[in-house]
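user: can you give me the structure for this one chain? tokens are fine.
assistant: on it. calling the predictor now.
[tool input]
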Amino acid sequence: MSNISKLEFPALNISGENYMSWTANVKRHLKSMNVLETIEEDNESSEQDNAKADVFLHKHIDELLQHEYFNCDNPSMLWEDLKSRFGHLREVLLPNARDEWDTLRFQDFKRVNDYTSALYQICSKL
């Protein structure tokens, strides 16, 4: 019934809080599609490769961001705009992640799996 295709990974949300994991996922997928160079500045990618990367990027950003970047059909320009908008979040989130790491205690969890899950969540932020 719905024409909405399933996303390969969560879309970049409007707040950008998942920007770091989103960029890693995008790079992996663009590389697997042989179009990673399309997000680099001054690339000489074919029009078809640029279109493929552009569709992929727009598909994996929040709907409000899609409206904001509706007229941007250059994947390199879109990548740089998103980087300048959300790229600083690592510096903002890092102190909080370090604090979580410092206060993480095994005895605060009932199961080893819960502790391991919390540990990996913190590591993904670092």
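assistant: here you go. Residues 89-125 form one domain. Residues 58 and 66 are 6 Å apart (CA to CA).
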